[in-house]
Write a structure and sequence with these properties.
alpha/beta, Rossmann fold, TIM Barrel, 7-stranded mixed beta sheet, 18 helices, 15 strands
Amino acid sequence: MKILLGLTEIRQKFGALRFQHGLASISAVLKRAGYADISLAAFAEEPDAEAWRGRLKSFEPNVVAFYSTAEQFPYVRKLIEQVPPGIFIICGGPHTSCFPSCIETVPRLDAVCIGEGEYPMLDLVKALESGRDHTHIQNLWVRHNGQIIKNPCRPFIENLDELPYEDYELFNVQKSIDQYGMSQLRFLTSRSCPFECTYCSNKQISKSQPGKYVRFRSAAHVLGELKQLRDKYRFDEIFFDDDIFMMNKGIMDEFCTRYPAEIGKPFVFCGRVEVCRPEMLARLKQAGGRRIDFGLESGNEELRRAVLKRRMTNQQIIEATRMAKAAGLQVKTLNMVGLPDETLEKHMDTVRLNREIRPDVVGTFVFFPYPGTELHDYCVAKKYCTPMEDIPSGYVSRRQSVLNMPSFPKEQIERCFRLFPFRVFGTYAPLKALGYAIIYSSYGETILNATKKYRKVLRKVLKGF
């Protein structure tokens, strides 16, 4: 049984990450079960149809399995349409979990997976290999005799420690680590988020399977995998991809006690304003934490509360960032522009809040209405967009808006996106403001690639950059 896993990261802000945790975990589970003939087809640029067909012909897969987000699904669809008959095609990821009816728009797509894909994929491969019925596998919607069979979902995986370590070898991980000169390894210690923000897929996915949604790996499991990765790859620090890092106090205590001696590399992690406490931040700093990333999204309290369902106040945000700085951590804020019902003045509230916080780093993203989320339906109801079953030609993820709002036109949204870091840092860090203006330009990715040899020097001069 030969399995080809597909990953598209095309026209994304600042380019491809070149790694995906879900595919790495699925590959590890399949290999543990004896399915060793697994390959990856990764696309950072729009695929050449002839080259793709050549890859299929040379590898001769029995199954092709794609991971997809909503923005990437149009590219996945094009790849699917090129796959010859006789090869089983399945797609998973946030898009199919939130919007499984996408299978109806792609006749060549045999199945979609809802929720966690490790065991559904293993069951599918076993069934196809043995010639058994594959149409009633939990978590899968399967095309059969012109009909879509919609199977119920199994519970979420309760014990994450039962899963094998992710298959990093499936990817060119060293290239991913080295890109842009950041020397960061991406790693995951938990799954899911307990909050229900209207723009995020977590809320919808949490309802897709029974059982506990937010789960944690043990400190021993995390540290065991990190030791293996430290011995295999060259990297200076770890970027923990968890939505909110170390929410379980018992696991955090053991992790912070053991991490300095057993791993000892600095790390970056994401926090949530409402759950931050001084003692927690101090422990993570002492263990090796370098920077904490906070999701602000909007500096307008009414918009954030009523539209995004994020109920923290601006004062709570300011206090949490001050706590982090007091603990010795650098602070990054994550911000969105072009939100439903936003205006230029409401966006400037986000600028003003960031100026008060004085973060070391900012991240800015243009809002996208993901199908299946509450905010997608809100945008459709308000006629800001049509149902997002496709995206405009040439669309660049997180850089461009797909909403039509008279109060905040697309051109103004995209200008605010480009100017946001300059507007924030221009008041207190002009050199950093200039650096951001350059990388947020249309030539930003090219410049990042060209300067990656000097990134360590730049990060010392522009702290946190």
